[in-house]
UniProtKB/TrEMBL annotation:
Organism per entry: Pseudarthrobacter psychrotolerans
Pfam name, any one: Aldose_epim
Residues making up the signal peptide according to the UniProt record: none
Protein's name in the database: Galactose mutarotase
SUPFAM superfamilies: Galactose mutarotase-like
A biological process from GO: glucose metabolic process
InterPro entries on file: Aldose_1/G6P_1-epimerase, Gal_mutarotase_sf_dom, GH-type_carb-bd, YihR-like
Gene Ontology molecular functions: aldose 1-epimerase activity; carbohydrate binding
């Protein structure tokens, strides 16, 4: 179901990238998993490792307006009646180029009544001594401006201990409060004094997170990092550039009999949930224009 897959290698890093969703199915440093893998055949649970576009997170009821016209995209999260994670996770991406340590894949979003815009999405993966680098470029190949957002969807694994024992560091000063039933945005709140304040790094414990964070501190090189560490000393981090002013964190909480809290989803996003309606940090991609976002995953 996940189609062809392509192996990459550099030093101690190895990766497997699938054609379906351009997903990182496996990423290892030595013999250690840096992300929660998924089977080569069968469904990909919980969008593990996919590229998400042209919108990250949710659109309630699949309804939005753009340039004065109302649209509706299919609802694929029936329990919450939301359109979740765009179109690209279900697309079969085409391999364009490949070396031992890098590859380029592409996909096309064709116009539909709910999203009558034409985009070409190109994903470049590259392994080097600093980890797995990803660069995603969207080009508007249509004749009208298009609303756009993008994010990755890996579940990071710090080590063999349970997620509750991992420490987490997040350089974000604000989180987006959401409704309990549908996880729809309510209001931005400072993390100071809240259980979601991980700026100084602390153990996750039983805290459940499925929220977007912003007011992100970037370093002098324009990079932000989320790092999770196992009490045994191993760890994994995700870094991204200023193209992503938001990051969604999800502790992977599921209901029995599904396995729960297997890894921490870290999703640098160009815009927050429901940006197609709020317009917050939404990319307006004009005809002929392109947009790029980059991130990487690395062992610590």
């Amino acid at each position: 179901m996940n189609g062809a897959e392509y192996g990459l290698r550099h030093g101690l890093y190895t990766a497997l990238i699938t054609a379906r969703g351009a997903a990182v199915r496996v990423l290892q440093h030595g013999k250690r998993d840096l992300v929660v893998p998924f089977p080569a055949s069968g469904p990909n649970p919980h969008f593990r490792g996919v590229i998400v576009a042209p919108w990250p997170n949710r659109i309630p009821d699949g309804k939005y307006a753009f340039d004065g016209t109302d649209y509706r995209v299919p609802v694929n999260e029936p329990a919450r009646q939301c359109a979740l994670h765009g179109f690209t996770p279900e697309l079969d991406w085409t391999l364009e180029a490949r070396t031992e340590s890098a590859l380029t894949m592409s996909s096309s979003i064709v116009p539909t009544p709910g999203y009558p815009f034409a985009l070409t999405i190109t994903a470049q993966y590259r392994l080097d001594s600093d980890g797995l680098h990803t660069s995603v470029t969207a080009a508007n190949v249509g004749e009208r401006a298009a609303p756009y957002g993008v994010c990755p969807h890996p579940y990071l694994r710090a080590g063999p201990a349970p997620l509750d024992e991992w420490s987490l560091e997040v350089p974000a000063g604000t989180f987006l409060e959401v409704t309990a039933d549908r996880l729809l945005p309510l209001a931005a709140r400072p993390v100071a004094g809240h259980e979601y304040d991980f700026r100084g790094g602390r153990v996750i414990g039983p805290t459940a997170i499925d929220h977007a964070f912003t007011d992100i501190a970037f370093d002098g090189g324009g990079e932000a990092r989320v790092v999770v560490r196992d009490p045994g000393g191993t760890g994994v981090g995700m870094a991204w550039d200023r193209s992503c002013g938001w990051v969604q964190l999800y502790t992977g909480d599921t209901e029995p009999p599904l396995p729960t809290r297997l890894g921490l989803a870290v999703e640098p996003m160009t815009c927050p949930p429901d940006a197609f309606n709020t317009g917050t940090d939404l990319v307006r991609l004009e005809p002929g224009a392109s947009h790029n976002a980059s991130w990487r995953i690395f062992a610590t």
